[in-house]
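Dear Dr. H.,

I hope your travels went smoothly. While you were away I took the liberty of generating a structure for the chain from your last submission, since the lab meeting agenda had it listed for discussion. I wanted you to have the full record in hand beforehand rather than looking at slides cold. The sequence, exactly as received, is reproduced here:
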Amino acid sequence: MSDASTLPPLRILLASPRGFCAGVDRAIQIVEQALERHGRPIYVRHEIVHNRFVVETLEAKGAIFVEELDEIPDDDRPVVFSAHGVPKSVPREAERRRLYYLDATCPLVSKVHHEAVKHSLAGRQIVLIGHEGHPEVVGTMGQLPAGAILLVQDAAEAEAVAPHDPEKLAYITQTTLSVDDTADIVAVLKRRFPAIHGPHKQDICYATTNRQQAVKAIAPRCDMVLVIGAPNSSNSLRLVEVARASGAPRAALIRRAENLDAIELDGVVTVGITAGASAPEVLVEEVIAALARRFALAIEEVELAREDVSFKLPRALAG
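The corresponding predicted structure, in token form, is as follows:
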């Protein structure tokens, strides 16, 4: 073990809030409690949240992850829908097969689904700001028939989108987007379609917003920002983009401590650390412990907000 007095110094700015949000915590609890109540195995459609550590931890407890319901061989075992939400065709298929299912969709995603249905019932076509192929976007677009929702991914697509009737139009957004990028896209839509309806409160969730604001606060003071999260995690990828846009010369996404070997830290004096909303705090602790073996650390926690949000479990598990 290296003598701490001989190690080079490294300052860590630890962004707060970081890591798990209420929707992720709820989704994981649903799987864990379903396992306790019903035993092994429990099937989960899609990764419950976008983090391999979480998925593998639940697999060890008896969860089996599938991408589609037709991969489930046993109609007698429960299935959980992931936090990202599902198209309406998925619960319909579960009901056709008489599968017992638990919906772990984040309540803030469900709010967007309700908005989409409400706008459709009011005769409005909908513009969804989001990333094509992301499970949340697939689930939201699947709430309504094809053509009812137009997907826009950036300002250029907002400039080109062609609704049926500009006077009967609304927009909704994926919950894990960049706050600043989304504001730019919304500005284009409002300029082109002054009558467009938007949400009463922004669709981007509180946790995404808070984590981005915390990264904005530390990025100008850092030589490098490390975001702990998965490469298929939208909110984690956005944190990397926000760090770079906010003044960090370098920013990188890492899954966990073992990925530090690929990060060049020579000459780095200050490192910012945050974690995406689906990354557990144990992975943050793991990264800091790995850095402590190489550097003499001085850690400063930079807190931008305190979160006390929690979501109720489904009634089937609440009793």
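Two observations you may find useful: The chain has three domains: 4-21+206-303, 22-103, 107-204. The first strand starts at residue 9 and ends at 16.

With kind regards,
E. W.
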